[in-house]
Amino acid sequence: MKEALLILGMMIVTFGVRYPVLALVGRIELPEPVIRALRYVPPAVLTAIIVPPVLLRDGQIALTLDNAYLIGALVAIGVAWRTRNLLWTILLGMGVFLVWRVLTGGL
Q1: 23 is in which domain, residue-wise?
Q2: SS3 for 85?
């Protein structure tokens, strides 16, 4: 029951913070620089979510070959750059991550 109330509370706070902004954006014209800047928000947030788990192991930067997260991320970056295909990027990045993890004794 406590978890449900916690989730409900988080939902209300998130909705309460975001809805007024979304409602205003539909009614007012944003300047072009703001619209251009907003295009960078998703990549910036995704980078902030992904980079720490990929580069950090036990609070230390892990730029080694036994870091399967790093190897999988590098492959995913390469596939995304060459193919611009989200499905192939995910499949090959995850596949290399899992294979590398098995080969280095992670699983």
Answers
A1: 1-39
A2: coil
